[in-house]
Design goal:
Length: 179
């Protein structure tokens, strides 16, 4: 038979834990107020199936980009940082952005995520800091005029994304020093 060996190196332990966390199937659960209501059970089952299909779609898109699955990335962040944060926008006009799926998913690094909680512990808003190139920013926001900025489009800039229930705002800092 086959034997499995896990080395004593710390990275082997982390990779084993990540594979254990990431290999389990996704099982969403929607609690029901009335277990006997057949129409409520049917509606929750449809939502649960839609969530499974959505994450399968996200995993296919990530695989096509040569990246790990969403669960694998989340498991790694949980093990290393203790938290995991992902960002997803459902886009109606996804084909306009040359996307194969309406689900725009990104795993965020907890080190650059600043949540704002209310008294009950619910997140009201958040800010995420990232370091894209100026070319990436200009590609995402074609309304910005490239002639306004210097010619070095491959240099990194600071980008702050602000989200709350209703709005998404982006601030770009071009001259700021990067960490």
């Amino acid at each position: 038979g086959r034997k499995r060996f896990v080395g004593a190196e710390p990275q082997a332990t982390v990779m084993l834990a990540r594979s254990i966390l990431a290999r389990n199937p996704l099982v969403p659960f929607i609690p029901l107020a009335d277990l006997d209501a057949e129409e409520e059970r049917g509606a929750s089952q449809k939502i649960e199936k839609a969530i499974i299909g959505m994450f399968n779609d996200i995993d296919r898109a990530l695989w096509g980009q040569g990246r790990q699955s969403a669960r694998s990335m989340a498991a790694m962040h949980l093990l290393i940082r203790g938290w995991t944060v992902s960002h997803m926008i459902i886009r109606k006009n996804y084909k306009k952005f040359d996307m194969l799926s309406p689900f725009d998913y990104e795993q965020w690094d907890m080190r650059f995520f600043l949540p704002d909680f209310d008294k009950r512990g619910f997140m009201r808003s958040c800010i995420y800091e990232s370091f894209p190139t100026l070319a990436d920013v200009l590609a995402e926001f074609p309304d910005l005029r490239a002639t306004t900025y210097d010619a070095d489009k491959q240099r990194s800039v600071l980008r702050y994304d602000y989200y709350d229930r209703d709005d998404h705002a982006v601030a770009i800092s071009i001259g700021a020093p990067l960490p």
